[in-house]
Amino acid sequence: MDIYLVGGAVRDALLGLPVKDRDWVVVGATPEDMIQHGFRQVGADFPVFLHPQSNEEYALARTERKRGHGYHGFAVHSAPDVTLEDDLRRRDLTINAMARAEDGTVVDPFNGQQDLEKRLLRHVSPAFAEDPLRILRVARFAARFAPMGFCIADETRALMCAMVDAGEVEHLVPERVWQEVQRALQEASPTVFFNVLQDCGALAVLMPALAQVMELEPAPLALRALQSASELSNSLAVRFAALAGSLDEASVEGLCDRLKVPNDCRALATHLAASVDDLLGEARHDPGLLLAILDRCDAWRRPERFGELLVAARAVALARHVDFNPLPIQDILRAAKAVDPRTLMDEGYQGKALGQAIRRRRYLIISDSLGLDNPPGVEP
């Protein structure tokens, strides 16, 4: 049997980038051969094995034939007579369809090296259209390699549009969509991902509320906020919240439901949607409003999450060209959080009266920190 390094490891090495994960393809072997050599089988849908020492994945060369809609609608064939070129032909982009033999020779049947030089993301074959998830993968690679000057080939872009028109994207399951979205949010140029999906029509299918607000202006607020967030923080939750910051609360909830967004990202995005206008406006002059925001966001028990909320709010402020410095609010939170219930209990406060006393002390600290002699609103 012959073993080849394939996919992203070969691509990144040729680009001079660090190789993080290595995938291998084995040609001319059966599952029994692999097990006999000490590999452990882990693949359920197709034969994938873990190396006995490195634990890296080794997959038997395979072909795929479409038999239904969506990501799982494929029949997989793996046998010793499946060639390396057969295996590479089923891959998405030419730059991902290269292999390196054990002697270092690069096997490149679909001119991936040429497309690397041209900085092109080009599909390998018409079979690209059989898997709608590849639209999101191409958009993600566009986001990753945009700083290096990569763009999508015209014919690939046209094929992606045709796939959307054919309704293939409607069969994607939320979990797979979110998996690509979260990866894209952490790429070098995450805004490119959403621009690509908008251009080919996939965003309107997958995230209609976001697509609608992106249509309203040439440089959408959502993408400007995401760009700012990507420069301020590596946090997935912060970047997602900033992206959703141009939506109202109901739309954010709908987006999170549609994508089955995990709780940490969902909580930050919904808190930002509910609070960002006040944080950038009246809350900086109204201690009662700021106290209500701190209560609603549970900043007392989750100060780290509130810190991320302020970073996301800062990203939205930059997108709106609004002056907003979150540091004074962080200082206010630390000061108000220092109110000690035990001291108040020693003063005789109990039960409901204790809770009211804590809020009153926090309100006074916030008022003093804001420098307000006659603060607006009603003291709690």
UniProtKB/TrEMBL annotation:
Keywords: ATP-binding, Hydrolase, Magnesium, Metal-binding, Nucleotide-binding, Nucleotidyltransferase, RNA repair, RNA-binding, Transferase, tRNA processing. CDD domains: NT_ClassII-CCAase (cd05398). InterPro entries: CCA_bact (IPR012006), NT_sf (IPR043519), PolA_pol_head_dom (IPR002646), PolyA_RNA-bd (IPR032828), tRNA_CCA-adding_enzyme (IPR050124). GO terms for molecular function: CCA tRNA nucleotidyltransferase activity; hydrolase activity. It catalyses: a tRNA with a 3' CCA end + 2 CTP + ATP = a tRNA with a 3' CCACCA end + 3 diphosphate; a tRNA precursor + 2 CTP + ATP = a tRNA with a 3' CCA end + 3 diphosphate. The keyword Plastid does not apply. The keyword Disulfide bond does not apply. Belongs to the tRNA nucleotidyltransferase/poly(A) polymerase family. Bacterial CCA-adding enzyme type 2 subfamily. This is CCA-adding enzyme. The gene is cca.
